[in-house]
Automatic annotation (TrEMBL):
Belongs to the DegT/DnrJ/EryC1 family. It comes from Ancylobacter vacuolatus. It holds the Pfam family DegT_DnrJ_EryC1. Keywords: Pyridoxal phosphate. SUPFAM superfamilies: PLP-dependent transferases (SSF53383). This is dTDP-4-amino-4,6-dideoxygalactose transaminase. InterPro entries: DegT/StrS_aminotransferase (IPR000653), PyrdxlP-dep_Trfase (IPR015424), PyrdxlP-dep_Trfase_major (IPR015421).
Length: 374
């Protein structure tokens, strides 16, 4: 049997011939056209209870960059540092670096794998005004406590941008779409490999409509109505075609997330020797199944991954190497103490997950895992 890590399943545009024909006939292909507008407004009501506003973007890396720039520029912070967890994807720290900030890489919590609050507090006390922005990652779609960050921002004036790349479809402890009510920018990816799969795309949500209006202007070169740049800008717009994929994805996203949650629960029940993340919300939009190999596994992770591959099962190792281990970030970043990251990262393996996964495939993965550890 062959089990890939992921099988991206954006909606098939070929099944939406009428929508495609209408799109082509409209003559509008980008620059916040009617499909983008329809998607933003439906996403706002379906996921965020109609509070605040949403903005689409071409991908989450650019959206993060835009949101960091907005937070720093309009927050009036002069600091040179950005707090970024080391246990995340490169995009989080790249966004800070493109804004001219030096990432300070910090640790995560041992069970939720969310960014460490103790480290955030300690680093804020140590560096104060020198920290321009904090970029916590909602690890693998787990829920961050947004009130903590809102209070930190209110108390210190620091900018906060939430990297929620994997969280579209996640529900928080109160059952709301993760991010609902956030006073800061929350950035979600709609990359093909995410649960909310399109091709390339992203969304920024904020409860503050004015912030989204500013970001929209920044995403369109910072232009006002007379095409005069009024603020830092770039082109971060989502084209109409991927917006159509996003609009139609909304029709099925709940079913997709629920099915993935069922599969995740089956893995958890079958792989008792592996360690799973403690979830803080009521539903996570699982992109894959991150687990920690048993501590007493007795074989290096690379051997395990190779043995699984020989049995036809592809595994991932997100996020290992973690950022402080990657040459570019080693060069440009400041590294804080990372005891939890250092303990977790070498054991992490991402198990296969996709919408159409059969339970027989999942059983095969679990049996292969047990054999390969022997
Ligand atoms: N912040 C965080 C925390 C993130 O995790 C990410 C992205 C971002 C920010 C930035 O979001 P975007 O700018 O991408 O919107 C993949 C995704 O490309 C990336 O979006 C994602 N995180 C990351 C966790 O995973 P790679 O380098 O691992 O992709 P790749 O090409 O190895 O693909 C992964 C698997 O999916 C492979 O087994 C192949 C398969 N695949 C992939 C694509 C694109 C397919 O079967 N078909 C496909 O079309 O980054």
């Amino acid at each position: 049997m062959r089990v890939p890590l992921l099988k991206p399943r954006p909606i098939r545009l070929s099944h939406y011939a009428d929508d495609l024909a209408a799109h082509e006939a409209s003559g509008v292909f980008s620059n916040f056209g009617p499909i983008n507008t329809a998607f933003e407004s439906r996403l706002l009501s379906d996921v965020f209870g109609g509070d605040g506003a949403c903005l689409t973007a071409c991908n989450a890396t650019i959206a993060l960059l835009l949101a960091v720039k907005e937070a720093v520029h309009f927050g009036g912070r002069r600091g040179r540092y950005a707090l970024v967890p080391s246990f995340t994807f490169a995009a989080t720290a790249h966004a800070a670096a493109w804004c001219g900030l030096t990432p300070i890489l910090y640790d995560i919590e041992p069970e939720t794998w969310l960014p460490s609050r103790e480290a955030e507090q300690r680093l804020m006390e140590r560096h104060g005004e020198d920290i321009a922005v904090i970029l916590p990652y909602a690890t693998y779609g787990n829920c961050l406590d947004l009130n903590w960050y809102a209070a930190l921002a209110a108390r210190t004036g620091v900018g906060v941008v939430i990297d929620a790349a994997a969280s579209l479809g996640t529900r928080d402890a109160a059952g709301h779409g993760f991010g609902h009510g956030a006073p800061m920018s929350v950035v979600y990816s709609m990359h093909a490999t995410k649960t909310f799969a399109t091709s390339e795309g992203a969304v920024i949500y904020c409860a503050d409509k004015q912030r989204i209006a500013r970001l929209r202007q920044m995403a369109n070169f910072g232009f006002d109505g007379a095409r005069a740049a009024q603020m830092p800008g770039l082109n971060a717009k989502l084209a109409e075609l991927p917006a159509l994929q996003a609009l139609r994805k909304l029709d099925e996203i709940d079913r997709v997330v629920e099915r993935r949650a069922e599969l995740y629960a089956l893995y958890r029940a079958r792989l008792q020797d592996f360690t799973f993340q403690r979830h803080t919300g009521t539903r996570a939009a699982h992109q894959f199944v991150p687990t920690l190999m048993p501590e007493e596994a007795g074989i290096p992770r690379a051997t395990f991954v190779q043995r699984m591959k020989e049995r036809g099962v592809d595994l991932g190792t997100y996020f290992s190497p973690h950022l402080a281990e990657q040459p570019y970030f080693k060069d440009i970043a400041v590294v804080d103490e990372l005891p939890v990251t250092a303990a977790i990262a070498p054991r992490v393996v991402a198990l296969p997950l996709y919408d159409t996964m059969e339970e027989a495939e999942l059983r095969y993965v679990c049996e292969a895992a047990a054999d390969c550890l022997r």
